[in-house]
Description:
- The two termini are 20 Å apart.
- The chain has eleven helices and no strands.
- It has one domain (32-203).
- The chain has helices at residues 2-9, 11-20, 25-65, 73-96, 103-108, 112-116, 124-133, 143-161, 171-185, 187-193, 199-203.
- Helix 3 packs across helix 7.
- By secondary structure, it is mostly helical.
Amino acid sequence: MTQKILPSLSADRFEPYLKAVGYDQSRAFKLYMWNLHLSSAFYPLLASIEVALRNRIILCLKEAFGDQWWDSAQFQSLLGKRGKGILLRAVKEVVKSDRTLTDGRITAELSFGFWTNMFLPKYEAHLWQCFCAETPLAEAISREQILDRCNKIRVLRNRISHHETLIGRNITLDYSETLELLRWICPDTADWIKPELKIMALVRQRP
């Protein structure tokens, strides 16, 4: 049966799992399945981060550029040509589907990378003070630290989204840094989600 599964996985995708267990095919399949479960276990944490991050940023965008922040000429100018294009495409997608333009609908069309970029230096004067206002822990960290951490988590998120292997990563560090980012954004949300996370339990079950 396992030989029939291999073509659907592809030899290239399965090779790291074989290599990790000394080319024991039975163990490699168990490791592959473990990787699937581990990737799934990260979803609640990553989803919580993305939702909390973009909602906090939207509050700051409203304060800086008004309720219809996406239509602000000042904000669009700050975004630059590429960022403005991404935003306008998101707006176009909402309009094309015959829906009213709202924060939530536009947000759904924008990537985690877009929100990560809101911590670039050019946005600091408009957004950083507002971002820190309701997060006491944020006073102890810098915009640069959040930008760096968001970029690291974005790489992890993309690996999981594209079904790549996690077996060569330091999962304990990934877990602690990801949870810490959520704590920087909203400590209460981090405390709420932590008991539900199964990541470290799965780490201990690695085949």
